[in-house]
Amino acid sequence: MPKSQEQIDDIRKQKKQLIMDTALELFAENGFHATSISQIAKKAKISKGLTYNYFDSKNKILDELMNQGFNEIYDNLDLNKDGILTEDEFKFFISENFRLVRENLHYWKLFFSLLLQPQVSVVFAEQYKEKAEPLFLMFYQFIVSSGSKDPEKDLMAVSSMIEGAFLYIVAAPDVFPIDKMEEAVIDSCLKIIKTN
Questions:
Q1: Are the C-beta atoms of residues 162 and 185 closer than 8 Å to each other?
Q2: Distance separating the N- and C-terminal Cα atoms of the chain
């Protein structure tokens, strides 16, 4: 019995994700430049030609991995998509991203280790600035509307605290109880915003 278009699309999606997951693992372990498409195909147990059907270069795989990471994080911001961040949406954003990191620790450990590679960090910095701009603008407007007297300074402090917490979870998950750290980050961020 021939496969339906939906089944074919699902198989393609699974193969593409397999290639990306395998590439992420190899990029993190061996380095981006030291990993070849052949190695990715071999580890994924698919042909090199099939790999090229999905991605014409390992740079395209890297771009897709970065987009996937960004999208997972930013999809939890401004749930009603009205361009205005409320306190409840701010809390949800932090909580949901703590959950994402906690539930897929292996992925995020590999993702962060990839981002820290010198050759990758330059590309990441450019993409991060472009992708994060709307997020930071929304954070900034939320901080201003919450009564901050120095919103730029508060934005830097809040962003650093959130990202630092995620790095702690990834690099040293047993240092602090994650649930307590999540609560402390939310409380501290709101305290910074509302008392400065």
A1: yes
A2: 66
